[in-house]
Amino acid sequence: MANIKDVAKLAGVSPATVSRVLSNKGNTSEAVRARVQMAIRKTNYVRPGGAKPLVPGSRTICLTIARNSTDIFGNPFFDSVLYGVSSTVEQHGMDLQLAVFHSVERQIEKCVQLYKQNKVDGLILTGILSADKDRLLRTFHEEHIPFVMIGRTFRHDVFSVHNDNLRDGYMAARHLIDAGYRNLIVLTQDTKLDVFAARISGYRQAAQQGGLDAGPERIVQVGPEEEDIMDALQRLLDEGIAVDSVITMDSVMSLSVLKFCQLTGLRVPQEVGIIGFNDAPYLVKVSPTLSCVEMNGANLGAEAFHLLNEIMNEPQAMSLKKNVTLPSKLMIRQSTSRSSFEDR
User: How far apart are CA 34 and CA 7, in angstroms?
Assistant: First the structure.
């Protein structure tokens, strides 16, 4: 079994330098750190107390999320991301861990521990709350942990794969306008989350181009429960705010909007159009079927793995940074097909 001297010899450094890299202490250049990490992989060196050697065939990837479990399980976006990551990891003969945390503090603590103990070789991050990005990404950089983020960030220079959420918000709103709707509203759980904020900006661009009202009263923040959504829609009607179409931030919310319309006698799509984000099998099992912007979570997950694998194979690539934008797709169904219902 290789020892620390074998690693040092292959990397062309002293054993003390290898020790500093392993413990993340002292001043070590990125170039030296990359050589040491590559030597560790080539020699299959295992630190005392480590779990496994760092060889490609035995690599373990960790998909990590710090959100409430109610925000994750059953969410079609996270389901498809998990499918994309897991299937691609399996194709490459690697292992996958799924780590869900209820706080970013615990996520940071546990992920750093897993990496230092050689239990995982790289991380894929998704579902990061905007307020947590600074601490999370800064810590992983300081610890020199290979990672890729699913989702866009304008304030951090990291490897990431994402959709163009501004374009997607514009596409959803533009579709409604082209279908003849004029009184659009947006239902969102959060107006500050990067993903939602970008979609709202896209909606506003489309509304303004169409000469439509895009005032603040048309961005409605709601709670996560169906009752919250129904109460918000009822308040809009009670206040006399004209509504003939609704953009929701996920497909589960679209179901709640459809239920509200059915309970109140509003016809979909003749009187109210509905479109959301993230496709799901149940959207075509209801009547009318529900339109959406498909975010292709499986493709995001697969591409995130490919980026991470690139970093793990060439650690010096971490200093280059890379962002990949994947296209979304408009899925037009009955809930926004006003013209097909005109004669009914």
Answer: 12
pLDDT in tens, 261-274: 999 999 999 999 99
Q: Which residues, listed in sequence order, are joined to residue 163 by a DSSP beta bridge?
A: 326
pLDDT at 53: 47
pTM: 0.79
Alpha-carbon distance of 42 to 2, in angstroms, equals: 10
Q: Which residues contact 244 (CB under 8 A, 6 or more apart)?
A: 181, 182, 183, 184, 271, 272, 273
Tens-place pLDDT, residues 4-31: 888 888 888 887 788 777 766 556 776 7
Residue 120: strand pairing partners: none
User: Is residue 186 packed enough to be buried (19+ CB in 10 Å), middle (13-18) or exposed (0-12)?
Assistant: buried
Q: Which residues contact 228 (CB under 8 A, 6 or more apart)?
A: 222
pLDDT band for position 95 (50/70/90)?
very high
The more confident residue out of 241 and 343 is: 241
Q: How many residues comprise the chain?
A: 344
Residue 57: pLDDT band (50, 70, 90) is: very low
Cα atoms found within 13 Å of the Cα of residue 137, Cβ hemisphere only: 23
Q: Distances in Å between the alpha carbon of 53 and those of 40, 57, 91, 289?
A: 8, 10, 20, 51
The residues, ordered by sequence, that sit 6+ positions from 35 with a Cβ below 8 Å of its Cβ are 11, 12, 13
Backbone angles phi, psi at 307, to 5 degrees: -65, -45
User: According to DSSP H, which parts of the chain are helical?
Assistant: 4-11, 15-23, 30-43, 69-72, 76-91, 104-116, 133-142, 165-178, 194-209, 226-238, 251-264, 297-313
Please report, as a single letter, which amino acid is at residue 218. R
d(CA 52, CA 42): 13
